[in-house]
Amino acid sequence: MPTAHSTAVPLPDSLNAALQAHFERTRDFFSKLGTASPEAIILGGGYGRGEGGIATDAQGAPAFFNDLDYFIFTSKPNDPSLNEAVHRWERDESAILGIDVEGKCLPQSDLDATPGSMMFYDLVSAHTQVMGREHYLEPYLPLAQADQIATIEATRLLWNRGSGLFFAKADLAAGKNLSIVHRNQAKAKLALGDALLTIRGKYRPYVRERQQQLQSEVGIDPRIIALHQEGTAFKLKPTSTPHLEELQTTQGLLTEIWRACFLEVESKRLGQTFHKPTDYTQYRGQLFPETNMGRNLLLALRDQLKRGGHLAPSYDYPRGALQRALLSLLSEPTDFHAASKFMRISLKDLSTAAQQYTRWWSFYS
To answer: Which domain of life does the protein's organism represent (predicted)?
Structure first.
């Protein structure tokens, strides 16, 4: 059942009642599946840790804000009857709660291969078990160690949030989707500090713990600490969308700090020194040296045949090209020439770049 912790933020009575009713419906629904019934259902994410966002609806009442992200453990993750049931449950519960309810089916054995991932650490350290054998994840607790989270997890986090900043840049230029821009910026504010804690082995599962840890760290840019504090506040209690001018100012500051933070993380991961973005984008080595060059060339060939193009350099894992392109797209002014080289297609404006980047990002994120 719920994992208790002193930093958890209690939900208002109305939301807590809605969540508990949702848990009851979930247990009732899946327990009726017979042989297709899962071994355990675990709620991860913010609400699973007891720190989901508490928004305010149009009438001024408390409202859910984040998605509900479930891990559905089963020995038969590809069972058609279970997957059909999960889709029905996702649809029905999303409609009832007014937020996205999503479930990922996987065997418990998948956890054996992921102890170095941030997902594994977050899930095992703090979650709510809704159904299944009591303390289902307890055997994995000894493996959930902050200093064992791989450095590449910090890279992945910053790349994802940096991609969000690029989408925000394109939206700001068009003056649209400002609420999404605000949300992407808030996520980036958290990611900067979280990534630096990760490469120092100091990451924590609860956001307010991470904020406290950041404040005690030596050598952290005070702006990153302040931004993390703002991101923490937004995560727990989302704020209304600022005016366009304020979002643009925030975008400039965040992008500048993101670039420096990303280069610091990548310098540590790759054992190279990247002083400026062009040191990284023009780096002749593999950004993913653990991948096989021959296999990467085959991926490029497959992409060319099935997707009508491929990313460059083709000897590296395709995500490397996207990371190089991202730094070019987040530069000021935007370096469309360099980004076009990595994405092997002419990019002349932010709208076209965002469309092409989104396309490849969906394949390799």
So the answer is: Bacteria
